[in-house]
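Hi there. Long-time user, first ticket. I'm pasting a complex I've been working with (about 419 residues overall). I'd like to know whether the download I got is complete or cut off, because the file seemed smaller than I expected. Thanks.
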Amino acid sequence: MPGPLELVRRLGSSVVDRVWRLGFATRFFFAILLHSGTALRRLSLTLREIYFSGVLSLLIIIVSGLFVGLVLGLQGYETLQRFGSTEALGVLVSLSLVRELGPVVAGLLFASRAGSSITAEIGLMKTTEQLKAMDMMAVNPIARVVAPRFWGGVISMPLLAAMFSAMGVFGGWLIGVVFIGVDDGAFWSQMQSSVDFRYDIMNGVIKSVVFGFAVSLIAVFEGYDSAPTAEGVSRAITRTVVTSAMTILALDFILTSFMFRGN
Amino acid sequence: MNRTVLDLWVGFFVALGLAAVLFLALKVGNLSSAHLSDTYVLQARFDNIGGLKVRGPVRSAGVLVGRIADIGFDPESYQAVVTMNIDGRYRFPRDTFASIYTAGLLGEQYIGLDVGGDDKMLQAGDMVRMTQSAVVLEKLLGQFLFNKAAEGQESK
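Hi, the file is complete. Here it is re-exported in full:
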């Protein structure tokens, strides 16, 4: 085929490929929902996955949350003092964490810490034909392997995001009040008067739940769909992290445009 | 890993997560203090609401007594109709004056309720009769300049 036509053909084939994978991922999602009974009935399976994706991510989430809060405290103070309104530091730190940074950064960290390991585990199970072996023994691998990991991720993610935000607020307080000397009472009371539970905090929690679903689905799907070779698994892990990051940021934009319009 | 240890860690994790949500709700957010229980509705018409926003505060004597629920436009009188949710614990006399104030120089705008001396109280759904619109800075400046110019003419 001549040069330009070949290019068009390649473009078409890559689009078709992507649409096909998207459809496959959607069917996979419904298959997980369909076979979630086992994951919920045999709770120990899901608990194990909460341990691996949630408890083991605690350290990175808490440390990153603290540092993000410290940086927000410093940068926020530096900017606010130009306008002589350093008491608003608490508002700035808490709103940016609760609305945006908490869910988004916790989601990105969760994707690279827990999502990648889920993909690696499932991909390696596929490579070593453990999934096929389960199928031979009439154990459905989606019910036994995929669904518990999916639900473990979905449950862990909002809790991790909440901890991230809480640690960030603590970090902002540490810098603002303890080190710089912003008034303690003004810091908390201004924060409380401008952070609304339903509008700000619940919308942040909804974001983190949506990200939890997205990252967990991407992680288990990429693992299940990986080529059963060493190279295939490594590519699947890369795709998990990259796709999760882009999905989180795109979803965040869409959710924000619906949630926070500022009327 | 031992089952009990694993359960312990997961329990610890979930408790910590819920504690974080609780901290955000009570300490960072306003779930503890400013929730207005059983509110009733008052309405007021303004010629100009300036930069008033939905969910903005309604204050009396500087204390938060309600929130703005809705801002509409009346096509017949060409006025803004502001609907307020007022805390059910507080009643206001019928000659209450509703004005739009600004908190600080650049702060948010809010509705201030200045209480009159009437014996009869406003009931749910009532309209606050006496209102004062927001001060529009451009108009104020325009008036000031106009007066200055007029003074200049007189002294000649």
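A couple of notes from our side: Chain A touches chain B at residues 44, 47-48, 50-51, 54-55, 58, 94, 98, 156, 158-160, 162-163, 165-167, 169, 188, 191-193, 195-197, 199-201, 205, 263 (CB under 8 Å). The two ends of chain A are 56 Å apart (CA to CA).
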